[in-house]
Amino acid sequence: MQKTISPQTLRRLPAYLHYLRVLLKKGAVNISATMIACELNLNDVQVRKDLALVSGSGRPKTGYEIKNLISDIEHCLGYGNGDRAVIIGAGELGCALLTYEGFTEYGIDIVAAFDIDRSMKDTTMNGKQVFSVEKLPAVCSERKINIGIITVEAKDAQKASNMLVENGVMAIWNFAPVHLAVPDHVLVQNENLGSSLVILSKQLANKLGTDQNS
Length: 214
Ligand SMILES: NC(=O)c1ccc[n+]([C@@H]2O[C@H](COP(=O)([O-])OP(=O)(O)OC[C@H]3O[C@@H](n4cnc5c(N)ncnc54)[C@H](O)[C@@H]3O)[C@@H](O)[C@H]2O)c1
Prior knowledge:
Belongs to the transcriptional regulatory Rex family. The chain is α/β, with parallel strands linked by helices. It contains 8 helices and 9 strands. 44% of the residues lie in helices and 18% in strands. Helix 1 (7-25) runs antiparallel to helix 4 and helix 2 (33-40) crosses helix 3 (44-54).
């Protein structure tokens, strides 16, 4: 039976993966959970538990063989499923995401972006194309797109979401500050950089002892 992995563990796995790949490139062979915890400034017990959920290859004394652990984490995260994504809204944020090459490290290929602004039609950024939204159905069916990334303003987000769902997208990464209504079979991950910043700011206030509520 497959073990259930919490969202918190899932969030930590890409960081382990990144670190392990760096180590492998440097020629390291084995690693312990304690070393990973120490390097990533995480709790030893937490890392041990996370790794036990995704890999049975850990051994007393030697720890994990790095290449096996990488492969187990990739398998757990569904890398190699060939997830392809498109971006709706090629403005400031959409273009930044489109040109960021690091998503391939997470097994996601952002194929193209779409915009209603005709001046952006058929432009290319870092080898990725920006199409007019009319081309969305053709690209979704030809490239078998299963993830949609929404980077339009809040007022346009539901429309963008509807377009993605109509074209067979099963998962939406939503950056617009709005709740999306989607059918039950569609997954939505809302992203809010502002809330992460607020958490950081709050933690800083607590640390400095300037939080009046504490
Ligand atoms: N979640 C976060 O952490 C975060 C951070 C920054 C921005 N945002 C949000 O991301 C969104 C985009 O921000 P931005 O600064 O890139 O805005 P922007 O105005 O630069 O870009 C929006 C683009 O969407 C296009 N657009 C509008 N309706 C469309 C549609 N139906 N189909 C295709 N394209 C369409 C516009 O032509 C424009 O190019 C906003 O909702 C903003 O609040 C979120």
